[in-house]
Amino acid sequence: MPKVLVSDPIDQAGLDILSQVAQVDVKTGLSNEELVQIIPEYDALMIRSGTRVTQEIIEAGNQLKIIGRAGVGVDNVDVPSATRKGIVVVNSPEGNTIAAAEHALAMMLSLSRYIPDANHSVKNGTWDRKSYVGAEVYKKTLGIVGLGKIGSHVAAAAKAMGMKLLAYDPFISIERADHLGCRLVDMDLLFRESDYITLHIPKTPETANLINAEALAKMKPTVRIINCARGGIIDEAALAEALKEGRIGGAALDVYENEPLEADSPLRSLGKQAILTPHLGASTAEAQINVAIDVAEQIRDVLLGLPARSAVNIPGLYPDALEKLRPYLQLAENLGNLVGQLAGGRVELLNVRLQGELADNNSQPIVVAALKGLLSQALRERVNYVNASIEAKERGIRIIETRDGSIRDYTGSLHLEAKGALGDHSVTGALLGDGEIRITDIDEFPINVPPTHHMLFTRHRDMPGIIGKIGSLLGSFNVNIASMQVGRKIVRGDAVMVLSLDDPLPEGILAEIMKVPGIRDAYTVML
Ligand SMILES: NC(=O)C1=CN([C@@H]2O[C@H](COP(=O)(O)OP(=O)(O)OC[C@H]3O[C@@H](n4cnc5c(N)ncnc54)[C@H](O)[C@@H]3O)[C@@H](O)[C@H]2O)C=CC1
Ligand SMILES: O=C(O)CCC(=O)C(=O)O
């Protein structure tokens, strides 16, 4: 019988499902070292946010087939390591949506009426009505950052309370925002005009420290900020300082850069204008049952050899088709990710053209893989092979599929064209005989480069000296170039340059590149 380790508190409903097919050991509060020691005997690991599944644990988990996160965010799991080791990582993308949205709403109202402090004062024997004169949310402006599952539910409830709604989400269509009663605006305007700001975005390199001293300085002195998303999106020191100096009106936080929150955090000494809860967003009986059942069922299925429905790292497609298409799925995902990053914002139309022998295949998994890549910038681990199409539809992305078996530059190749709010871009890629991926075309300029983790693309005028200037600029920022290619159609016309880099590009370098005479555009891409 397979063995499942449950290392965080999980609802009994989940344990009952697991017990049908496995021996279940519940061992909570284990240290990293203890987990590394015992994990070799387990086939599955089920966690909430309390367990950090490190590379070390994954490396030691020689029997591990699946890691189940009873919740949304898998930022406490080293997913790339799990993927490399062939371990499926699953989550519950919707099981705690309502709980998290309701917690954010509760925080907003509690903050407006000082409920935690007022409650505390009565329980301490006082009857102070003067210190707790609050504010109404009715007719106030709520700025929602991230209009996904939780943000959308918050929007519906806040609208019913008579609030005016602004939203910032570069990956959502105006139609979707309109439908939710939100005015889609840029982040600056949201910061300046909101009376309340609530965050419902994942923690990513782009969202880390999004609310920093500079952002706080743009906000109204009365603004109240709610973060029930992820710690690290707000610069806690800057927030504490702004609150102490009365430069903002209040903050309610459920999540922190480090959890548990440090004993000496400046947040702990704030007065009634701050509310702190210990990551309780998903802590309702209903949500815990939902996520436990959702994830336990997936662990059971995978242990029985069936696909998982919310795998964040392995396609949940039919095994036969999957095996045959696997290399092309990777190609499609890479190209989708690339064209999405080149588009740099909302994509309205994705044209997917299957070429050569690929045109003879079922296009659906390829399209799904391309969408997964395209949406991964916005949705990270939330997007998978099962939900990519629905997510794209909800975001108003139209898909056109075409086939052209006569294009035989390579045995099989794939062409993606994204029409976006900020411009149109296209990429083509192919598989070489050994299954290696090549990007063969960017914006109709022929090239031949493998996708790598850090890449730099420029659009420039083909003229002497330009390549050298970019090379020395990167050198001066200590960025090592692994390979470089230029594609052009006519001599001294327009050209593209593609550089594979060993290091991430430091902040500020793109602005410097843009200053080089002849450079028209420059993009960094992470694949
Ligand atoms: N406090 C708690 O206990 C809980 C926290 N969460 C957290 O809430 C967050 C949101 O969850 P969901 O709504 O389910 O996710 P979701 O994936 O449905 O929505 C996230 C939205 O953020 C948008 N987004 C991505 N990058 C952005 C950026 N740079 N700027 C603006 N918008 C951006 C995406 O387009 C998407 O619409 C996640 O980080 C999740 O981990 C979720 C459940 C419970
Ligand atoms: O497991 C929990 O209580 C945290 C939930 C959460 O943060 C998530 O689902 O992303």
TrEMBL record:
Pathway: Amino-acid biosynthesis; L-serine biosynthesis; L-serine from 3-phospho-D-glycerate: step 1/3. Pfam families: 2-Hacid_dh, 2-Hacid_dh_C, ACT, PGDH_inter. Its EC number is 1.1.1.95. Keywords: Amino-acid biosynthesis, NAD, Oxidoreductase, Serine biosynthesis. It catalyses: (2R)-3-phosphoglycerate + NAD(+) = 3-phosphooxypyruvate + NADH + H(+); (R)-2-hydroxyglutarate + NAD(+) = 2-oxoglutarate + NADH + H(+). Residues 455-527 form the ACT domain. GO terms for molecular function: phosphoglycerate dehydrogenase activity. InterPro entries: ACT-like_dom_sf, ACT_dom, ASB_dom_sf, D-2-hydroxyacid_DH, D-isomer_2_OHA_DH_cat_dom, D-isomer_DH_CS, D-isomer_DH_CS1, D-isomer_DH_NAD-bd. PROSITE patterns: ACT (PS51671), D_2_HYDROXYACID_DH_1 (PS00065), D_2_HYDROXYACID_DH_3 (PS00671). Belongs to the D-isomer specific 2-hydroxyacid dehydrogenase family. Catalyzes the reversible oxidation of 3-phospho-D-glycerate to 3-phosphonooxypyruvate, the first step of the phosphorylated L-serine biosynthesis pathway. Also catalyzes the reversible oxidation of 2-hydroxyglutarate to 2-oxoglutarate. This is D-3-phosphoglycerate dehydrogenase. It comes from Laspinema olomoucense D3b. The gene is serA.
